[in-house]
Design a protein that fits this description.
mainly alpha, six-stranded mixed β-sheet, 6 strands
C-alpha cells in the first residue's frame, strides 16, 4: 500500500488531524503542524488548537529544542481565541523571540483596548530583545498612540520610523495619518499628504474622516481639494464624508457640487450615501431637496427615515416630522432610539404634549426607555410641553445621566420660573461630580434672575465659571442683565452692558427695555427703545413696547407717532394667536377673530369670566389699548385677546379638574396676565400659558413668574 501523502489544504489537514497523531505513524512535519495551527487560529477552533499543542508538548523533539515558529503560531492561536493569559505565558517563557512573536500579542492588545500594554511590549522588543521593528509593528504602535491620545509617544515613534526608512510603507503612512488627525495636529496630517507620495483613496478617507471627527472642517475642504486636483477616484466612503463635511459647514454650494460629482460618477448610492445626502440638505436648509431625495428611494430603512425626520426637525417642520411616524408604521419600519429622540424633540418644538405622550407609550412598548438619548429627549419634550412634573419623573427614573440630562432639567426648571428647584438640582449635579458646561450656567444664571439673587449670580459668573474654566458668552451676560433688571437696578444693568466688552444683540437690550416697562420707568425705556431701533429699525417688538409705554402714560400723540413710523418703515405687527389641544384636535384662536364655529359661545364665556373676576379684584388694563376710544370699548378689545379666547374654550370643553395648556405666539400682555391669575382662582384650574418669553403657570390666583416677564 502506497504511503499516504500529507494534506495540502487546512481543511484536509483538519480532517486528517486524528490520523496524523495516531501511534505507529510518522509524526507530522513542522510544515503540516503550522498549517493546522494557522487553520485553528483563523477559524478560532480552540479545541483543535489545544490537541495540537498537547501533541507538541509530549513529543520528545519539542522538549529538547524550542521551535520559535511553532511557538509563535501557538501564541497567535491563543490570542485569536481570546485566551490571552495562555498566549502571554507562552510568550514570556520563550527563550528566543522574533518580530512575529511580538506582533501576535501586540495585535490582540491593540484590538482589545490594552493600549499601554502594547507600548510596553514595543519598548521591551527594542530595548530588551534588540529587535528591529517592521512596518506592521510600527503601524500597531502608532495606532496605539493615536487611540490612547499619546501624541508625544506617537511623535517619538514617527522619528524612529523615519530613521528606519519605513515611512513610505502603506500601513505606516495610514497609521501616521490616523495619529495626527486623532491627536489634533491637523497641519501635520495635511503635510504628510503633501510630503509622502502615493496616497490612495483609503488614506485620503482616513484623513478626511479624522478632520471631520475633530471638527477641523476647513482642513477637510482642503483635503477634498487635493483629491480633486490629484485626480483621486472617490469611493462611497468619500461621498459620505464629503456630504458630512458640507452638512457640518452648512455649505449648500459645496454639498451641491459633491452631489453633482456623484451623479456624474458610476457610484451607486447606498443607504449611507443617501442618508448623508438627506442630512446635508436638511442641515443646509434645503428641505425640498432632502424630501426629493427621500421620496425618490424605492426602499427605505430606519436610517433613511430617521435622516428625513431629522431634516424636518432641523427646518422646524415639526408637524411633518410627527406625520412621518405614521408613514414608518405603514411601511412596517421599526423606529430606533435616534428616531424616537428626534420625534420627541419635534413634539417639544410644537409643545404637542399629546403627541409626546403617545410617543412615550411607544417607547415603553418598544423597550427604548433606558436609552440615554431617549430619556434626555423625554425630559426636553415634557419641559417644553408644560409638564415639568413629568419631566422630573423621567429624570428621577433615569439610571444613567450625562451633562445633557442635567442641563435639560435645570434649564427646564428655569424656563418654568422654578429658580429654587433649578439651583437645588445644580448643587446635586456638583455633588454627583458631573462637570457643568456653558449651557448649565445659562440655566443657573436664569434661575438666579427669577429669584433676584444678584450676589449669587455674580459669584457664579465671576468665580465658579472661571474656576471650572468656562469663558462666559453673550447668553451668560444677557442673564446677568436680566438679573439686575429684575432687581430694579436698571442703571446698573445699563452700565454693565456699556462696560462689558461683548457685542450685545437686540435680545439683551430687549431685556432691559422690558424691565423698564415692568418697573414703570418709561423715560428710561424710551431711551433704550430708541437705541434698539437704531440697531434694528425693523424690530417690531420694540415698536409695540414703545407704543404700550406711551399708552400707559395716555400720550396718544406718542402712540400715533409710533404707528406712523411703523407705516413709513413698512413694519407690521404679527397678529396675536393662541392655540390649545383638546381631544386630539388643535384649536387656533386669533385676536378679534370670529372664524371658530363656536365663536359666539366663546365670546360669551369670556364676558362671563370677566364679570365674575371683577369682584375678585380684576381691573381691565384699558391703558394698554392702543386706541383713543371710550373705556367700555377698550374693555371689549381686551376681551378679544387670543389667550382669553383659548382659555375660555378650554374651560368649556374639558373636565372641571383638567389642567389647561395654551401656547401663544407673542408675549402675554399685562391685562391677560392679571385676568388669567384670577380665572385660575375662580375655576380652581391649573392654567399653563407658554408665550415667547417663558411658561406662566397660574394656580389659585398666582403665577410662577411672580409677575415679572
Amino acid at each position: 500500500m502506497p504511503a499516504r501523502k500529507p494534506p495540502t489544504s487546512p481543511q484536509a489537514a483538519t480532517r486528517c488531524a486524528p490520523f496524523l497523531f495516531k501511534q505507529n505513524r510518522a509524526p507530522p512535519s513542522v510544515e503540516d503542524t503550522l498549517k493546522l495551527l494557522k487553520h485553528s487560529a483563523d477559524s478560532k477552533d480552540l479545541k483543535l488548537g489545544k490537541v495540537i499543542h498537547a501533541h507538541l508538548i509530549i513529543t520528545t523533539e519539542s522538549s529538547r529544542n524550542e521551535n520559535v515558529v511553532l511557538t509563535n503560531s501557538l501564541v497567535n492561536l491563543y490570542a485569536k481565541c481570546n485566551q490571552i493569559s495562555i498566549a502571554r505565558q507562552l510568550f514570556d517563557n520563550m527563550r528566543q523571540r522574533n518580530v512575529v512573536s511580538y506582533s501576535s500579542l501586540m495585535t490582540w492588545y491593540l484590538h482589545n483596548g490594552f493600549l499601554l500594554e502594547t507600548l510596553k511590549l514595543f519598548k521591551n522588543m527594542v530595548s530588551g530583545d534588540n529587535l528591529e521593528p517592521n512596518e506592521y509593528i510600527f503601524s500597531i504602535v502608532l495606532s496605539s498612540c493615536s487611540r490612547s491620545g499619546r501624541g508625544a509617544e506617537g511623535r517619538q515613534c514617527h522619528g524612529y520610523v523615519f530613521k528606519s526608512g519605513l515611512v513610505f510603507c502603506k500601513y505606516v503612512r495610514n497609521a501616521l495619518v490616523e495619529l495626527y488627525t486623532k491627536c489634533l495636529d491637523v497641519e501635520m496630517a495635511k503635510r504628510l499628504l503633501d510630503l509622502l507620495p502615493g496616497y490612495d483613496v483609503f488614506e485620503y478617507n482616513s484623513v478626511l474622516n479624522g478632520l471631520i471627527e475633530n471638527e477641523c472642517f476647513r482642513g477637510g475642504v482642503e483635503v477634498l481639494g487635493k483629491m480633486v486636483s490629484g485626480s483621486v477616484r472617490w469611493d462611497s466612503v468619500t461621498y459620505v464624508n464629503a456630504f458630512g463635511l458640507s452638512a457640518s459647514l452648512k455649505d449648500l454650494k459645496l454639498g451641491l457640487q459633491v452631489h453633482s460629482q456623484m451623479l456624474k460618477s458610476d457610484i451607486e448610492p447606498d443607504v449611507f450615501i443617501n442618508s448623508a445626502m438627506i442630512s446635508m440638505y436638511g442641515k443646509c436648509g434645503k428641505f425640498s431637496n432632502a424630501k426629493k431625495v427621500f421620496e425618490g428611494l424605492e426602499t427605505r430603512n430606519v436610517v433613511l427615515w430617521t435622516a428625513m425626520v431629522a431634516a424636518c426637525f432641523q427646518n422646524e417642520y415639526f408637524e411633518e416630522a410627527l406625520n412621518l411616524f405614521c408613514g414608518m408604521e405603514y411601511e412596517a419600519i421599526r423606529p430606533n432610539e435616534f428616531t424616537f429622540a428626534v420625534m420627541l424633540n419635534s413634539a417639544a418644538g410644537l409643545s404637542a404634549l399629546r403627541h409626546g405622550d403617545l410617543l412615550h407609550a411607544h417607547i415603553e412598548k418598544s423597550g427604548f426607555k433606558e436609552h440615554l438619548i431617549v430619556g434626555n429627549a423625554l425630559i426636553n419634550m415634557y419641559a417644553k410641553g408644560g409638564n415639568i412634573e413629568a419631566a422630573n419623573k423621567v429624570f428621577s427614573d433615569m439610571r444613567y445621566r450625562d451633562i445633557i440630562t442635567w442641563n435639560a432639567m435645570i434649564c427646564g426648571y428655569s424656563h418654568h420660573g422654578l429658580g429654587r428647584e433649578a439651583l437645588t438640582l445644580f448643587q446635586n449635579m456638583l455633588a454627583a461630580e458631573e462637570r457643568p458646561n456653558h449651557v448649565t450656567f445659562v440655566g443657573v444664571l436664569s434661575a438666579c434672575g427669577h429669584l433676584g439673587l444678584v450676589q449669587e449670580g455674580f459669584y457664579y459668573l465671576n468665580h465658579l465659571m472661571k474656576q471650572i474654566g468656562i469663558v462666559p458668552g453673550l447668553e451668560h451676560y444677557t442673564c446677568i442683565v436680566g438679573l439686575l433688571s429684575k432687581a430694579g437696578l436698571l442703571d446698573e444693568a445699563e452700565k454693565f452692558m456699556r462696560s462689558t466688552p461683548v457685542k450685545w444683540d437686540v435680545v439683551a437690550w430687549h431685556t432691559l427695555l422690558n424691565a423698564s416697562r415692568v418697573h414703570q420707568n418709561y423715560g428710561f425705556g424710551r431711551r433704550i427703545a430708541e437705541y434698539i431701533l437704531h440697531m434694528d429699525p425693523n424690530d417690531v417688538g420694540t415698536y409695540i413696547l414703545l407704543s404700550n409705554m406711551y399708552a400707559k402714560e395716555k400720550r396718544w400723540d406718542g402712540v400715533s407717532k409710533i404707528r406712523k413710523l411703523m407705516k413709513v418703515r413698512k413694519v407690521k405687527k404679527e397678529p396675536g394667536s393662541s392655540w390649545t389641544e383638546i381631544r386630539n384636535t388643535t384649536h387656533v384662536f386669533i385676536s378679534g377673530d370670529s372664524n371658530h364655529p363656536e365663536s359666539s359661545q366663546i365670546y360669551e364665556k369670556v364676558r362671563e369670566l370677566s364679570a365674575k373676576i371683577k369682584p375678585l379684584g380684576y381691573v381691565p388694563d384699558v391703558a394698554a389699548v392702543l386706541h383713543d376710544v371710550e373705556d367700555e370699548q377698550k374693555e371689549d378689545y381686551l376681551n378679544h385677546h387670543s389667550e382669553k379666547l383659548a382659555i375660555a374654550y378650554a374651560l368649556m370643553e374639558t373636565p372641571p379638574t383638567a389642567p389647561i395648556l395654551v401656547i401663544k405666539n407673542l408675549r402675554m400682555c399685562d391685562d391677560c396676565h392679571s385676568a388669567v391669575k384670577l380665572i385660575s382662582k375662580l375655576t380652581k384650574r391649573d392654567i399653563i400659558v407658554r408665550d415667547t418669553n417663558r411658561f406662566h403657570r397660574f394656580q389659585d390666583g398666582c403665577c410662577s413668574c411672580t409677575d415679572y416677564w
